[in-house]
Amino acid sequence: MNKKGILTIISGFSGAGKGTLVKELVKKYDYKLSISATTRSPRQGEEHGREYFFLTRDEFESMIEDNQLLEWAEYVGNYYGTPKAYVEEQLELGSHVILEIEIQGALKVKEQCPDALLLFVTPPSAQVLKERLIGRGTENMDTINKRLSRACEEALYMPDYDYIIVNDELSECVEETNAIIENERNRTERRQDFIQLITEELKVFQEGE
Question: Is 18 labeled as ligand-binding?
């Protein structure tokens, strides 16, 4: 019996390594990444249906009106959002789908998809987070301090997530995350069809046939 895939939403602090974690899950276990829709123009090398679904503003607003998006937002004059159809198609095929988004978007998706699995990625300590941000060497200390201040605010939402993923050693983190997602498939609320099937089969023995 083909089991439906798990919609997994991954959020976390900037510098926690969530992007690297997602890449490893996709590479090692063939997870599917949710493809976002946007009204911005394609950049060189980008293809419709690969990096993004590139839509006109009218097309995007029609999707909003028709409730075809799991979540959406507008940034710098362009819409970005997560189409339901692609996600649902992959889940029905039995593939796990990863959606790497910010906290507010994650909570919006959870409202529409109560069975979505929410994972929050964090380093083992605040000091390690600071060291990783500095170690990237891409931002000045003023920007890094702003990210740390934002992380302090984001930490307040950690209790809203189903699991906390401590990204200390990457390979262990990848294995732990995969195990959580796979085990989620066997939660009783996700196996109601199987429970009903075997319960009906067992009635034969109860009746003595």
Answer: yes
Contacts 24+ apart (CB under 8 A), 190-195: 190/3, 190/4, 190/115, 193/1, 194/1
Q: pLDDT digit string (tens) for 15-55?
A: 999 989 999 999 999 899 988 899 998 888 888 988 889 99
Q: Is 94 annotated as a binding residue?
A: no
CATH 3.30.63.10 is held by the domain 35-95: yes
**Model pTM score:** 0.84
3-state secondary structure of 101: coil
Residue 15 assigned as binding residue: yes
1-31+99-208: CATH superfamily = P-loop containing nucleotide triphosphate hydrolases (3.40.50.300)
